[in-house]
């Protein structure tokens, strides 16, 4: 699994090997966007989180997001690669080095001076954990999200909407705002987007003030106190707000589990039905018989048809 520090180290190595040197060869079998011309000189290599960008002297930017599966390697010519060629997503040659990206789910290029025209790019959104973050900008980016059919649970993880919302906090924010995780962006109005963004900002900032993770109080939506997480990691347990059972599913390319309560996360739930159809059936827990037995023994779930 790629972590931020490993991407930072990879960027440092690539920066030493590539910057100031002309590109002699570039291959990217699944590239979306223009290809850098031969002889173009690498000017910068930058990283942030799991994103790594290589910038050429003509303003072309190669953006890769390694997520959970990808990685960047650096080899001398003739050196044996540590992964098979079938996993190659980018192969960049200079006179002395070969930079290879394996298994990155996102490999795209755009022009630096015109990045806002790329529907999936533009600059990263405001960091919601910062007290000076422009919340209106994040609200606007969420409301005008480029894929209006995308479920809100995926859009909240897009760093072009806002930075700082990881998987734990997207689940908690959706629970705190009573929003169905699979509601399509097109179903959200401006107030919905404002509620999600302001709640996320309050949650992230409370994390900086308190060491334990915190979640929303039920009586005061948008305010946060020290407490256990409401839904994340609590599949099969009782929801503190409505008493229904917390469910878990695994949607999208990021393979990050979504924990939610079907009993009270009903905001825009009718519009979410069509989105749910494209995903695998939602499981309340691991299908192992022991999980079914656990569910059937919960006091509020006995004799429930889904409890096994």
Automatic annotation (TrEMBL):
Query: Which catalysed reactions does the entry list for this protein?
Result: 2'-deoxyribonucleotide-(2'-deoxyribose 5'-phosphate)-2'-deoxyribonucleotide-DNA = a 3'-end 2'-deoxyribonucleotide-(2,3-dehydro-2,3-deoxyribose 5'-phosphate)-DNA + a 5'-end 5'-phospho-2'-deoxyribonucleoside-DNA + H(+)
* Name of one Pfam family that matches: H2TH
What GO MF terms are annotated? Answer: class I DNA-(apurinic or apyrimidinic site) endonuclease activity; damaged DNA binding; oxidized pyrimidine nucleobase lesion DNA N-glycosylase activity; zinc ion binding
In the record, biological process GO terms are: base-excision repair
Query: Transferase: present as a keyword of the record?
Result: no
What EC number(s) are associated with this protein in UniProt?
4.2.99.18
**Which enzyme class?**
lyase
Annotated FPG-type domain residues = 230-266
Is Lyase a UniProt keyword of this protein?
yes
* Keyword annotations of the record: DNA damage, DNA repair, DNA-binding, Glycosidase, Hydrolase, Lyase, Metal-binding, Multifunctional enzyme, Zinc, Zinc-finger
Q: Can you tell me which family this protein belongs to?
A: Belongs to the FPG family.
What protein does this entry describe? DNA-(apurinic or apyrimidinic site) lyase
Q: Which organism is it from?
A: freshwater metagenome
